Amino acid sequence: MTSPQTLLDGPDGRVRLWETAIAPARASSWLEALLGEVPWQTERITMFGKTHEVPRRVAWYGDAGATYCYAGVQHEPLPWSPLLAQIRNEVHHLIPGHPFNSVLLNWYRNGRDRMGWHADNEPELGRNPVIASVSLGATRRFDLKHRVTGEKVQLPLPSGSLLVMDGPLQHHWLHQLPATAKVHDPRVNLTFRSVR
What we know:
Elements: E1 5-10, E2 13-18, H1 24-37, E3 44-47, E4 50-53, E5 57-62, E6 68-70, E7 73-75, H2 82-94, E8 102-108, E9 115-118, E10 131-137, E11 140-146, E12 152-157, E13 162-166, H3 169-172, E14 173-177, E15 187-193
Antiparallel strand pairs: 1-2, 2-13, 3-4, 5-8, 6-7, 8-15, 9-14, 10-13, 10-15, 11-12, 11-14
C-alpha cells in the first residue's frame, strides 16, 4: 500500500488518492464477489419532464435508519453484508476517525455507463461530508471541476484505489465519471459516507 497523494488541498476542499490501497488480487476477488452477491437495481429518474434510465446499476447499504435521498429517489439501506463490512473496516483503518454508516455502490458495466457532473451535497450528509471512494475493476477517468473558476482536474482511478474527498469540497467542486469508448470491462465503485 502506498501513502496518499494529495491532489487538492486548500480553502475549497481536499482530495487525496491512495493508488494501491488494496492489493490487485484482493481487489479482483472483491469485484467478482460483489457482482455476484449484490442485488443491483436499475433506477429511473425524471428530469425536465422526461424519465430516463440511469446509466449504471446501484445498491445502497448501511446501518438501520441510514436513509439517503438523491436525484429525487429515496433509498432505504440494505443491511451490511460480511464483505461490505470488511471493506468498510479497511477504509476505517486507512482514514480513522470517520465512522461511515453507509455505502453507495455503482456498477459501471462498461465504458458506456457513466455518472454526470454533480456534488455529494445532500443535506443528510452534513455540512462538509467526508466521501471515501473505493474503485474495483476497470480503470476509469474521474473528473473534478471548480464551480467558479472552471479549473479541472482529471485522474485515472485504478482497481484497488481509494479516493477521499473532504472539507468544503462539495460546495466548490463538481465531479463526474464520463463515458468512454475505450473501456469494455466492468467497474464497481463504493462510496462510503455518513448519513445523519
